[in-house]
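Posted in: Protein Modeling Q&A

I'm a second-year student putting together a small comparison for a lab meeting, and my supervisor asked me to include a predicted structure for Substrate-binding domain-containing protein. I've never done this before, so apologies if this is the wrong subforum. The sequence is pasted below exactly as I got it from our records. If anyone can share the structure token output, I'd also love a short note on what stands out.
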Amino acid sequence: MKMKKFIAVCSIAGMLAAAVTGCGSGSTDSKDSSASEWDSSNDITVVSREDGSGTRGAFIELFGVQEEVDGDKVDMTTEGAQITNSTSVMLTTVAGDEYAIGYVSLGSLDETVKAVKIDGAEATAENIKSGTYKVSRPFNIATKEDLDNEVAEDFINFIMSEEGQKVVSDNGYIPVDDVKAFEGTQPSGKAVIGGSSSIAPVMEKLAEAYKEVNPNAELELQTSDSTTGMTSAVDGSYDIGMASRELKDEELSQGLKATVIATDGIAVIVNKGNPTEDMSTEQVKSIYTGEALSWDEVTE
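Accepted answer (user: helix_wrangler)
Welcome! Here is the predicted structure, written out as tokens:
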């Protein structure tokens, strides 16, 4: 009787061990197979920014997604695109979808996604400066011509100084040439800066550096989009507006003055599980206009 019990216990233990081993084996096989399961015949998840985004405006212009129709510039972005309203949401969306493609400011690029080469050139500050990587745009700030805010004026002087442009360079952007050392007046008061979510990260760093040299100042940073940045600078809600694109004629006609504070690249990003390393400008355009629907149409 004892022998039978012993055999039964051993049998159960063996079955449990086999089950555990089987589960472990299945998990390993699943992991191994998932690493090679990327299927180029799958549909592309096209991710774009919202209307009013300076990054979207620059992207569609640089890649030819914006076309002239009856004398008007028309955004031809496919209606099937997923729309994100900020740089951070763009990054998390692409990082969470193996078949997604998107675009972000080069200075906002992080390790959660992969930037592809465009026409054989890597998206780097060095390649932008040399002209090898051509997908770049200006970072502009805008104020009223008759700006009457000493803190805002002093902060702009800091941004355009050696100290301010070092912050720009340290954060991966192309600085402005021919700048001089900062000579501040340490005014007291508050200035409100707002607009492009692409400029916001480096503007936050600039604000932190400025407050070290002028603790009397209060800077409030609001993040929205380039168009809101310009309209709010016009109506006085913002002392300084941020636009990650060139200002439009109608914005300039409303009394805004633009200042380029840096040059930035636009990185085309894909999921880290995507084997694609290099794309042409035309391939990116075909995806965003809806001409190419699956990855094998642009990678094979």
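A couple of things worth pointing out for your meeting: Residues 45-136+266-299 form a domain with the D-Maltodextrin-Binding Protein; domain 2 fold (CATH 3.40.190.10). The chain has eleven helices and 13 strands.
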